[in-house]
Structures are given as structure tokens and as C-alpha cells.
Amino acid sequence: MVISYPQISSCASVVIDTWRPGETVWTTHWFKNKLPKHIWGKCVFSNGMFYCLSTCGYLGVFDPSKSTWNILPVKPCPTFRGRIPVLMTEHEGDIFVIVYT
């Protein structure tokens, strides 16, 4: 599966396009953005889900098997301060957010 999502800062929707081998067109998924004016900028794949980090430190998750989008019920990353460069990665099922200082 291939996904694509634009990094739009003031959009009322989260838009995720998906394509699977054998399909001839992309499928567009529209979800209400529960954090308007924030960009979903980083994305990693782990255990069948795509995890996306917002500019305010929240984690969203896209489940391609169910075509669902949710914001995880956890507090924002405590060391995350908006525009500070971060790297998000996955290792053996764990998601890591690394803050550049």
C-alpha cells in the first residue's frame, strides 16, 4: 500500500490518499481534522497502522484496513515545542520521537 497526505496547516479535513497494487486509481479518504490549524507532518508505519505526528505533539493514527483516522488519547509529547525539528521513527513496534536540540 502507498499513502499520501498533504501537509496543510489550516485545513478542516485530514486527507489521505491510498493506492494498492492492482488498483488503477487512488482512493481518497476525508476525515474531520480535530486539530485545525495544525499540520500532520511526520508519519511512520508500525504494526499495520500509519502513525502521524502533529505540529502540536499529538499522535494521529490511520488504519488502512478499516479506513479510519483517530487521534490517540494521550497527552501531547511533553518535549515537543511546535516548530522544533523532530524525527519520528519505528523500531520493533515502538514509536520514537527524537527532538533535535
Tell me about this structure.
The protein is mainly beta and 101 residues long. The protein has one domain. It is 0% helix and 50% strand. A 4-stranded antiparallel sheet has the order 4-5-6-7, with no helix packed on it. The chain has a 3-stranded antiparallel sheet with strand order 1-2-3, with no helix packed on it.
Shape: globular
Rg (CA only): 14 Å
The share of residues in extended strands comes to over 45%
Count of discrete domains: 1
pLDDT averaged residue by residue: 79
Taking the sheet with the most strands, its summary is: 4 strands, antiparallel
State the helicity in percent bands.
under 10%
String of helices and strands: EEEEEEEEE
Characteristic terms for this protein:
101 residues; four-stranded antiparallel β-sheet; 0% helix
Question: How would you summarize the topology of this molecule?
Answer:
Elements: E1 2-4, E2 13-19, E3 27-32, E4 40-46, E5 49-54, E6 59-63, E7 68-71, E8 86-91, E9 94-99
Antiparallel strand pairs: 1-2, 2-3, 4-5, 5-6, 6-7, 8-9
Protein name: F-box associated domain-containing protein
Organism: Arabidopsis lyrata subsp. lyrata
